[in-house]
Design goal:
The chain is built from 13 helices and no strands. Helix 2 crosses helix 5, helix 4 crosses helix 9 and helix 9 packs antiparallel against helix 10. The termini are close together.
């Protein structure tokens, strides 16, 4: 699962050789939806039958799939794939911030606030404001802010998922299928009308989209569900630690991307912030910010 999500930034970067950011989001969601439909069909898992769950899952689809997938793909035009994978690791911190605003009855304890502070220092170090000077710096700043908006969108999705979808008790594979399917249909309808970017389906682009869609957007959801069921959410969320390592390594080895000193140090501070917030005992019903794995 870490390999599937950690490599997704490499495949998005490769896909930009022949597709626009919106076309990449459309391709990965369509292929992911096909994979998930096949899975629920083989396993005979029922989809929700009433309209209310479809509406709530549709909201999750927008914030957990459509927006972040499009933002990350757009950011790939301006920043390295390894840097995107580092920003993806901020998802638990962003979820915590959203939780503070949306779930005010869940008061954070001191360790969570300390972890958030350490993590935000790490984000600032990765952002490297001293390097954002001139035209190139402006483009990089826009790409990095897009990555943060994407993880902020994940945070909104996780909070909404908890409040309105989890209480329904639906099978996880069923939720994932509806979630990815709704997003795929919406993009398939909208993107051809708003994006006239010419498509250049080279073998590398096609292979990247198949891998990104089937494994990174389809099967990874099933693997995540199995890990949560077998080992618990805490073990599953360890993907947060591994995806930036894989993403940075693949970007450096395959795409010859340069890793500056501040990126691994900032990433380490982000992860340290997550660990600080998670290790302390929390009251029942406390924030989900440190218990959700970061998707990609």
């Amino acid at each position: 699962m870490s390999l599937a999500w950690g490599s997704s930034f490499l495949f998005m970067k490769t896909g930009l050789d022949g597709l626009s950011p919106l076309q990449i989001a459309t391709a990965r969601m369509t292929l992911g939806a096909v994979a998930l439909v096949l899975i629920v069909s083989v396993l005979r898992i029922r989809l929700p039958r009433s309209l209310a769950p479809w509406g709530h899952i549709g909201v999750v689809s927008v914030f957990l799939c459509v927006l972040p997938f499009s933002l990350f793909a757009w950011a790939g035009q301006h920043v390295d794939s390894g840097l995107m994978s580092i920003y993806n690791a901020t998802t638990p911190l962003m979820t915590f911030v959203v939780t503070l605003v949306a779930l005010r009855n869940e008061r954070p304890h001191r360790a969570q606030l300390s972890g958030l502070g350490v993590g935000l220092i790490g984000v600032l170090l990765v952002l490297a404001p001293w390097q954002l000077i001139g035209t190139t710096g402006a483009g990089s700043l826009g790409g990095q802010l897009a990555c943060l908006l994407a993880t902020g969108s994940y945070g909104v999705a996780f909070v909404y998922l908890r409040r309105f979808v989890s209480p329904l008790g639906l099978p996880a594979a069923s939720v994932a299928t509806v979630q990815v399917g709704i997003g795929a249909v919406a993009l398939l309808v909208a993107v051809p009308m708003i994006d006239d970017h010419p498509v250049s389906p080279s073998p590398g682009v096609v292979a990247s989209m198949i891998t990104l869609g089937v494994f990174g957007t389809g099967l990874a959801y099933v693997w995540n569900t199995n890990i949560v069921a077998g080992w618990g959410a805490t073990a599953a969320s360890s993907v947060t630690y591994l995806t930036p390592v894989i993403g940075v390594a693949l970007g450096a080895v395959i795409l010859d991307e340069t890793v500056t000193w501040n990126q691994p140090i900032g990433a380490a501070l982000v992860i340290a912030g997550i660990v600080i917030g998670r290790r302390q005992p929390r009251p029942a019903g406390s924030s989900i910010a440190t218990a959700e794995p970061a998707p990609r």
